[in-house]
Amino acid sequence: xxxxxxxxxxxxxxxxxxxxxxxxxxxxxxxxxxxxxxxxxxxxxxxxxxxxxxxxxxxxxxxxxxxxxxxxxxxxxxxxxxxxxxxxxxxxxxxxxxx
Length: 99
What we know:
It contains three helices and four strands. It has helices at residues 18-33, 63-71, 73-81; strands at 5-11, 38-48, 51-60, 91-95. Strands 2-3-1-4 form a four-stranded antiparallel sheet. Strand 2 and strand 3 form a beta hairpin. The longest helix is centred in the N-terminal third of the chain and has 16 residues, at 18-33. The two termini are 14 Å apart.
């Protein structure tokens, strides 16, 4: 039986780049939701101290599905484009369910 993989990723845009980051992440959402093995790919925002932070909550059927996502052209394009728009590295946590 395969074990689902959950990813929680956070993005803090540099001042003036909030909309550009939003558009890149929305573009990823549509493409990723169509991938085999993607169960959930939802985008959220949090506002604090006048800044927007974006959070992606992702769930894949297993580690192979997550790797297929990371091997996709749209993933590679987003990873090449987004770092210069952020105020620091992407915060990524890969989670496993506690049983």
